[in-house]
């Protein structure tokens, strides 16, 4: 048999080994109940909590303000033009005061166009005062008052995409990207003969360690991306929260975050003489700290960290993901995209380089 045929046959065998390894690794991970809960169910539950608890907290809508106006006042003609007030005309002060006392109106305007309210604080009395101030200016200007437009609202309503609640969802997606760490730790620990019986068998068999690493890398990346896609479908189509106006750039960022999480998992998993449960605990702590600093639990904590530890906030990979996802989707600003991709890529290269160095330097006296 010629050398070319031998090389071709060897290549086919390697590909078969790779695909077989991918199949069994994926099957093993999908059977793991912890993967089903933490990577698939837990993010969906957290997204549901954000939607229920935070949507109403960050929503504000200006409604018509119920006011009582004496018929003799100039405001009786002006207030209906603004579209801001639910105007109730009264005959005298007593009727207006009674409505105000019974909290059926927010304010009362007497015949001299003077404002009477139970409390001088708040947005609604300020709006009433603003209109009355324009009326006072109109009286002082005389004929020039014809140019004043009372239909112009002192509160400008426009659709604003900079929603604080979006930060929580972007932080959630960043956290799920780094869940690939756990599968990577398990895969890297398995091939070490001093930590796993399967590792001892692989070391003494003709099956190449590099084939196992490549297949596990592909499986961890792919399953995490599928989990993120399912989370996206749930958030956008079931919870009706629109997050990704720039899907291609967002997908690229999420892929880089997934790559970074997987690489960090291999770096942790390659550490010699540390058992897998200890590595997993450290990964959980690292993930929680980074996501907490990125604003997953509280936006106020995020601002405090940015104020007191700006470098940590700037180079925290989850903060990078959260900030850039927010900027490109809510602010239509892609200026930070190159920095984000470069930084996450640098982290991935460093982590994979460290993992390669640690795995190659491992030597065993006996298996």
UniProtKB/TrEMBL annotation:
Membrane spanning residue stretches: 35-54, 167-191, 212-239, 251-268, 280-305, 337-359
Pfam family, one: ABC2_membrane_3
Keywords: Membrane, Transmembrane, Transmembrane helix
GO molecular function, one term: ABC-type transporter activity
Residue ranges occupied by any ABC-2 type transporter transmembrane domain in the UniProt entry: 33-356
Compartment(s): Membrane
A Gene Ontology cellular-component term: membrane
Topology in membrane: Multi-pass membrane protein
Name the UniProt record assigns to this protein: ABC transporter permease
Native source species: Streptococcus minor
């Amino acid at each position: 048999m010629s050398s070319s045929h031998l090389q071709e046959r060897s290549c086919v065998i390697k590909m078969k080994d790779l695909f077989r390894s991918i199949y069994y690794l994926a099957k093993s991970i999908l059977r793991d109940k912890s993967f089903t809960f933490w990577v698939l169910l837990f993010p969906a539950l957290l997204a549901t909590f954000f939607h229920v608890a935070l949507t109403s907290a960050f929503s504000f809508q200006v409604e018509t303000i119920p006011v009582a106006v004496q018929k003799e006042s100039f405001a009786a003609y002006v207030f209906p033009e603004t579209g801001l007030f639910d105007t109730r005309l009264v005959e005298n002060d007593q009727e207006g005061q009674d409505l105000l006392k019974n909290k059926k109106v927010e304010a009362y305007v007497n015949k001299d166009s003077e404002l009477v309210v139970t409390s001088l604080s708040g947005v609604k009395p300020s709006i009433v005062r603003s209109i009355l101030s324009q009326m006072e200016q109109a009286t002082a200007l005389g004929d020039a008052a014809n140019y004043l437009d009372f239909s112009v609202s002192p509160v400008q309503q426009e659709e604003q995409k900079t929603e604080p609640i979006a930060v929580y969802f972007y932080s959630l997606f960043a956290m799920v990207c780094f869940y690939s760490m756990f599968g990577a730790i398990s895969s890297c620990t398995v091939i070490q003969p001093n930590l796993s019986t399967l590792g001892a068998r692989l070391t003494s068999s003709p099956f190449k360690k590099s084939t196992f690493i490549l297949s596990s890398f592909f499986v961890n990346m792919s399953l995490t991306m599928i989990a993120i896609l399912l989370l996206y479908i749930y958030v956008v189509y079931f919870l009706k929260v629109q997050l990704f106006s720039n899907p291609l750039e967002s997908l690229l960022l999420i892929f880089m975050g997934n790559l970074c999480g997987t690489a960090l998992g291999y770096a942790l998993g390659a550490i010699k003489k540390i058992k897998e449960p200890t590595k997993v605990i450290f990964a959980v702590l690292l993930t929680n700290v980074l996501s907490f600093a990125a604003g997953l639990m509280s936006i106020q904590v995020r601002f405090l960290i940015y104020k007191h530890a700006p470098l940590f906030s700037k180079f925290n990979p989850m903060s990078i993901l959260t900030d850039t996802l927010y900027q490109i989707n809510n602010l239509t600003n892609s200026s930070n995209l190159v920095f984000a991709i470069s930084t996450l890529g640098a982290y991935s290269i460093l982590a994979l380089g460290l993992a390669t160095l640690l795995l190659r330097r491992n030597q065993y006296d006996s298996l």
